[in-house]
Amino acid sequence: MFDTAILIGRFEPVHHGHVALLQHALDHAPQVIVVMGSAWQARSPKNPFTWQEREAMLRGALPDAVQQRLKVLPVRDYYNESVWVQAVRRQVAGCVPPGARVALVGHFKDATSSYLDRFPGWALLALPRQGSTDATGIREAYLGAPPDGLEAALAPWRPQMPESTWAFLQSFAHAPDSRGAYVRLCTEWQALRTAREAWSQAPYPPVFVTVDAVLRCQDHVLLIRRGHPPGEGLLAVPGGFIEQRETLWQSCVRELREETHCAVPEAQLRAGLRDVKVFDHPDRSQRGRTITHAHYIDLGDMALPAVQADDDARDAQWVPLAALAGREAEFFEDHFHMLDHFLGLTPRP
């Protein structure tokens, strides 16, 4: 027996395979900690549910007698494995006494399971895969269902999910306060599927190269609100795909102009360039493997330049840095973490 068993996952949504792992943890320790990944992410086809909704699904699959033995710790996606590991360890350390015997429960599904090797000192309780259930398949059936065909689309998956998950999925799709979010997710899923199909005949999986402009001025940062899927309505920094005959810098300036009409002279932008950082985590974009080059430009204390949304942007606005930390769940993909890297919005693990 161990003092604490830890289960790490996203649970998007909860299925019987997750419950089997959780029961394995409960069988081996009086306290179980579930590290709930992808916390505070904006809703997307990959992360459609809040961590609180996922916790409710997970707890709903357990008998009341074990509820007090379970603790859920939400952890954000840092898109940096070493930083993420530190964050998980720090959170767990606050819940277990020094010297506690800790076990990590999981199974090696694919390359995404490599995190199980990143916690030396925690005994690994490996469990074979429980059936063929995969949360990705459930999400695709759920978000790809035709209008009025949700129950039929989910029918093959119903035996693989607890009643709490089934009830939540039905409620989320039909309840007045969440129906709009469900419809938007379905639209996003279809847009992503169409984009992937367009590249399906390529001899190799495509790798996209993009640029982003993190433009700071008077302790404000310039943000857009995306006008089209993916990420329609979410906050982002101005940016986009490079063109064939452009350098990264030229693409960055062009995208900034097209999306915000920011008229700061290029020479002044160049003078304010403080850093260029590559963000290349394999899971940073649902559009496919996308490597972006974020250009951090600080205009100092000059007057905030006039901006006006255009092209792919629905809105363009200067946002105070002090207001950013509380808006994490409004950001597209890893753009909040991009800002966090340059501006230090969250405490370091």
UniProtKB/TrEMBL annotation:
Pfam families listed in its UniProt record: CTP_transf_like (PF01467), NUDIX (PF00293)
Residue span(s) of domain Nudix hydrolase: 206-342
Keywords per UniProt: Nucleotidyltransferase, Transferase
Superkingdom: Bacteria
Alphabetical list of InterPro entries matching this protein: Cyt_trans-like, NUDIX_hydrolase-like_dom_sf, NUDIX_hydrolase_dom, Rossmann-like_a/b/a_fold
SUPFAM superfamilies per UniProt: Nucleotidylyl transferase, Nudix
GO molecular function annotation: nucleotidyltransferase activity
NCBIfam families according to UniProt: cyt_tran_rel (TIGR00125)
Protein name: Bifunctional nicotinamide-nucleotide adenylyltransferase/Nudix hydroxylase
Organism: Acidovorax lacteus
